[in-house]
Amino acid sequence: MKRQDGFPDGFIWGCSTSSYQIEGAAAEGGKGPSIWDTFAHTPGKVAEGHSGDRACDSYHRWNDDISLLKELNAGAYRFSVSWPRIQPEGRGVPNQAGLDYYSRLLDALAEAGIEPWLELFHWDLPQALEEAGGWRSRDTALRFQEYAAIMYGHIGDRVRHWTSMNEPWCAAFLGHLTGEHAPGMRDRVAATRAAHHLLLAHGLAARAYRQSGLAGEYGLVINPSKPRPATLRPEDLAASERASIERTSLWLDPVFGRGYPQGFVERFGGDLPVEAGDMDIIAAPLDFIGVNYYNEEAVRAAAQGPDNPYGFEPVPTYQKKTEMGWEIEPQGLRRILEYIAENWPCRVLFVTENGAAFPDVPGPDGIIRDYDRIEYLEGHIAACREAISHGVPLKGYFVWSLLDNFEWSYGYTKKFGLAGVDPSDRKRRPKLSFYYYRDRIAGFCP
Ligand code: FCB
Question: Is the pTM of the predicted complex or chain greater than 0.85?
Answer without folding.
Answer: yes
